[in-house]
Structures are given as structure tokens and as C-alpha cells.
């Protein structure tokens, strides 16, 4: 679920939040980082809990329509398709998933039911719903993919809700949404319950990369700052104290302390992060500094790279 760029973003946020130095106890910084990363999985589970709540709402709605004599036959049929959606049944009926959601206290949609109501009404008004024909697992899956991609994920009120719930979730949403869609597309009718509970880290190397990038950047922050200062005599010191300075230190850390990561990969990753999180001129500034540093390393054969390279 977690990719290397998002790991870098999480490390950046931790470094920027604490503004620590090599003399500090790094335990609190590492704990903050790992908690922030783990929180991403909570967001994923919260969205599955939301889909469970919407499915329950569809069942209640269908029952009400059946009790109304004036309800149209098409209306009852559509509501029946929604209520009996096999893909949603796979989520709602996944015992392991639901127990995990309850254990982590992420089944909060009963308390915040107005968001379930808002999304449910939007679904009922949509063309996706009016044209939906069920009774087939693949059709049911596509219906869920469509309402999630076009109605649920882009909803501004839901976005604001997640931002208020946990601040870091806003940055996690794009990664979680992408992961969720990939998991849904691969999910089969006879899939094991664990298929909806993927590992957060691709492997333990990714978790090690996160903690080592944090620690090695902090432990060498003075030397990295000196190296940056030599290349930035004409730049405003405030820029170096901002997020740009953090990104530059992290990039230099990868240059020096992670020999298996190609310099080009490092530069591209931090330029993309700068475009998203810093000022409009940041990527130009960072690219210029890193380019000077790499040319110096290559000229003097410093910090050579080896290995296959990890993104």
C-alpha cells in the first residue's frame, strides 16, 4: 500500500514538525513517524467502514421502499440491487475486517451518520445508480468502483471531515484511494478475508528505509546544512529554514547514506514533493542546488552509487 514517495513525505513532515538536531533523543521523532505512517492504514479501514455503513443504509432504504405501496417497480428493483450488492456483501460480511475496524475503534460512522446520508443521497441521484443492474459479481464490483471514484472519493465534505478527524489523513488520501481501487479491481468473489487487509509496507526494507532516512538526516543535519550553505550564498536564509531546507537535507542524506538509490531517482522524487508541498519556485531552487552537489560528487568520485536502485 505504501510507496517510497509517500514514505519520503512522511519523513519530511516529521522532520519539519520537530525541527530536531543530532543532539536530540531520536526516539520521539521515530515514534511520531511510525505513528503517522500507521495512521494511513486507519484511514484505509475507515473508508471500508464507510462503505459498510452505506451498504447498511441501502438495506434500510430498500426495506422502506418495500413497505411503500406507491413505490415504483424500477425503484424497488434498483434498491434491491444496491442492498444485495455482492461486492458490498463481501466487505460487510468480512468478519476479520469488521473485527479489525471495531478493535481499532474506527466504526464511527454511526456517530457521524450525516456524512453517510449525504453520500447515499448523491448515489441515489446519480446516473450510475439509475443505470445499475445487479445480480452479477462483476457488475456489482463495477458499481462500487464507479460510485467510489466518481461520488465518494471526490466529495468535498468528506474531504473536510477526514481533515478534521486527523490532519495527516489529507496527505494520505490520494495514496489510500489509489491502493483501495487497485485492491477492489483484483478482488474476486472467493477471495480470502485477508485480501481486504493488505500489508501497509511492501516489505520490511521499506519500514527500515523510513526510520533510517529520518535518523540519518537528523544525525547529520549540521554537515548537510554546511554543504547546502556553500551552494546557496545568494539565496535567502529563510528559504533554507523552510521546507526546502528539509527536502535538501533529505536528498543529500540519500546521496551519501543510501548507495543503492540512484541520484537521478532521489532528485526526481524530491522535485515532485517540492512541487506539491512547497512554494512555486522551490523545485527550481532545489534542482539547482542538487545538480551542483551531484556534479561535485561525480568530479571527485564521492559517494558512488551501487546496487539495483530502490525507488
From TrEMBL:
Keywords of this entry: RNA-binding, Transcription, Transcription antitermination, Transcription regulation
Chain ranges of the NusB/RsmB/TIM44 domain: 203-295
InterPro entries registered for this protein in UniProt: NusB-like_sf, NusB_fam, NusB_RsmB_TIM44
Superkingdom of origin: Bacteria
Family: Belongs to the NusB family.
Descriptive protein name: Transcription antitermination factor NusB
